[in-house]
From TrEMBL:
<dbReference type="Pfam" id="PF13026">
    <property type="entry name" value="DUF3887"/>
</dbReference>
<dbReference type="InterPro" id="IPR005899">
    <property type="entry name" value="Na_pump_deCOase"/>
</dbReference>
<dbReference type="InterPro" id="IPR024981">
    <property type="entry name" value="DUF3887"/>
</dbReference>
<keyword id="KW-0812">Transmembrane</keyword>
<keyword id="KW-1003">Cell membrane</keyword>
<protein>
    <submittedName>
        <fullName>OadG family protein</fullName>
    </submittedName>
</protein>
<keyword id="KW-0472">Membrane</keyword>
<dbReference type="Pfam" id="PF04277">
    <property type="entry name" value="OAD_gamma"/>
</dbReference>
<keyword id="KW-0732">Signal</keyword>
<keyword id="KW-1133">Transmembrane helix</keyword>
<feature type="domain" description="DUF3887">
    <location>
        <begin position="47"/>
        <end position="139"/>
    </location>
</feature>
<feature type="signal peptide">
    <location>
        <begin position="1"/>
        <end position="25"/>
    </location>
</feature>
<feature type="transmembrane region" description="Helical">
    <location>
        <begin position="162"/>
        <end position="185"/>
    </location>
</feature>
Length: 256
């Protein structure tokens, strides 16, 4: 009985192993490397023979028009992906120059995508072209990777470090300058707060009537009596014969 169970277990293990190998083989068989290489060669040849103006014309086309064009050419590429490839190709030309002399393709398969890599000779720098395909062998993207020497890598890293640190220091200096201006804020606030008060006082003083100078009334009765007595003495008459009704002061204090 035990032998039957052990034999059954071995059979199950063999069946599962065969199923796993079969699924793996079918998964790898989904990608036809020869067809993918033809697609890649078509893209490289087409882009290499196009001028920058021709590439811009494709980039300016509508998605519907570009999809029809790609369908007629037999390339399994969507319009958005094709425009992204044009941008990547232009960037590769700026980095490596004219691309020529492709080497042997190498296929790397992942769970849901595959990458086709090929080395090339560049006018200014050699590099690799990477073509990415989805599980239906539709081309998703193209990447141009230039090969840099150690000196170039160190130079680029140093330049990036200097630019990064320089940007940080410039920002810090600008922030310090802004903070130094905070001390002027109270003076500005006081200036704007005092101005309305001064204008209010000025308007109040302009609206208030000017004070009237009140001249205190003087009692001239004693002065009238003295003047009357002096006139009566000089005339030799009595004070009853005349009446002093008003007294006018002369501008000069001298008697004439």
């Amino acid at each position: 009985m035990k032998k039957k169970f052990s034999l059954l277990g071995l059979v199950l293990i063999l069946v599962l192993s065969l199923v796993g190998c079969g699924s793996k083989a079918s998964e790898e068989a989904e990608y036809d490397q020869a067809t993918m290489e033809q697609y890649a060669d078509t893209i490289v040849t087409s882009f290499s023979n196009m001028s920058e103006e021709n590439l811009d014309q494709f980039a300016d086309m509508s998605d519907l028009e570009l999809n029809l064009t790609l369908m007629q050419s037999g390339l399994p590429i969507e319009a958005d992906d094709f425009k992204s490839m044009i941008d990547a190709w232009k960037a590769g030309l700026d980095e490596c120059g004219t691309i020529s002399d492709l080497g042997d393709y190498e296929l790397t398969v992942k769970s849901s995508s595959a990458t086709l890599t090929v080395p090339f000779k560049g006018e200014t720098r050699d590099g690799d072209l990477e073509f990415t395909f989805d599980e239906k062998m539709n081309m998703d993207s193209i990447t141009v990777n230039g090969h840099y020497g150690m000196a170039e890598i160190l130079k680029k890293a140093g330049l990036n470090t200097v630019l990064g640190m320089g940007t940080v220091f410039v920002v810090l200096i600008f922030i310090s300058f802004i903070i130094s201006l905070f001390k002027f804020i109270p003076a500005i606030q006081n200036k704007f707060s005092k101005k309305p008060q001064a204008e209010t006082k000025k308007e109040a003083s302009a609206a208030a009537p000017a004070p009237v100078e009140v001249v205190p009334a003087t009692d001239d009765s004693e002065l009238i009596a003295v003047i009357s007595a002096a006139i009566a003495a000089s005339e030799g008459t009595s004070t009853d014969g005349f009446v002093v009704r008003s007294i006018k002061r002369r501008k000069s204090n001298k008697w004439s």
